[in-house]
Amino acid sequence: MRILLAGATGAIGRPLTRVLVRDGHEVLALARSEGSAAAVRALGAVPVRADALDRDGLLRALDGTSADAVVHQLTALKSPKLKLTADDPSNVLRERGTAHLLEAAGVLGAGRFVTQSLVLGYGYRDHGDRFLTEEDPFGVRGGTVADHVITGLVEAEDRLFAADHVAGVALRYGVFYGPGTWFDPTPAGRPFPVPLGGGGTMSWVHVEDAAEATAAAIERGRAGEAYNIVDDRPSTWGELAAARGRRLVLPGRLLRLAVPYLGDLMLDTRLRVSHAKATRELGWTPLFRDHREGMRA
Questions:
Q1: Which candidate, 254, 123, 269, 125, places its Cα nearest to that of 193?
Q2: Is residue 62 predicted with pLDDT exceeding 80?
Q3: CA separation (Å) from 210 to 129, 207, 287?
Q4: Which of 22, 35, 284, 290 could form a cystine bridge with 216, CB 3.0-4.6 A?
């Protein structure tokens, strides 16, 4: 297939590009700068100099080009703001970026569209010990600052599923760990703040596993469907940070005071999610069953 990938130089975009090239696909990757274009070429993809947030420039850059699928993996997580607001850069990419890329799919004649979503859309609260599936309510707000994230995720999924010119698939990833993420096991990774006592429970996924799942969804995902992409064993933030080897432990009240969003995420949320549907329909299972295996690798 010929695939337009937005976000090829991000934490999941890099391994995803390598997987798609390995599988014989031709990857056209958006690049906003010459530096990004060089990185894209090094990964084996063809750069397209355009910005997903510049609608007119994007459509001009793609005029006369064709593709079979579009994949949206754009986020702005490298430098997150301390205060989360409705105009958070990642939300802008989920909302306006999705709208522009859907238009681009029409220009390209692409029949498939895969977008990044997150399991956090199930809600920042204590879900108990039950494993959630795609049948559980998605997009339930809790009246906190975390609602901005949920709104962005719902907006991206709703736009995609309402589009009648593409077969849309949403991948609800767990929290990423691995190279290039907040939880980077390499020596260059910075200490990450975690609450005293370990905090709440979260569902995770290694970026290499997320890339393999995305490749499977491009080929086998069913139109109008969402899939949870997580590993087998949820764990606390403290457990994962300990396996990473570099952490900054803070009292929960201090963490919440400094960054209210991290209080919602790390203290208030217990979220166990099942990937049974992805295994059944995409033929995907995580190579790394939990963070301990992933961090060792």
A1: 254
A2: yes
A3: 24, 5, 10
A4: 284
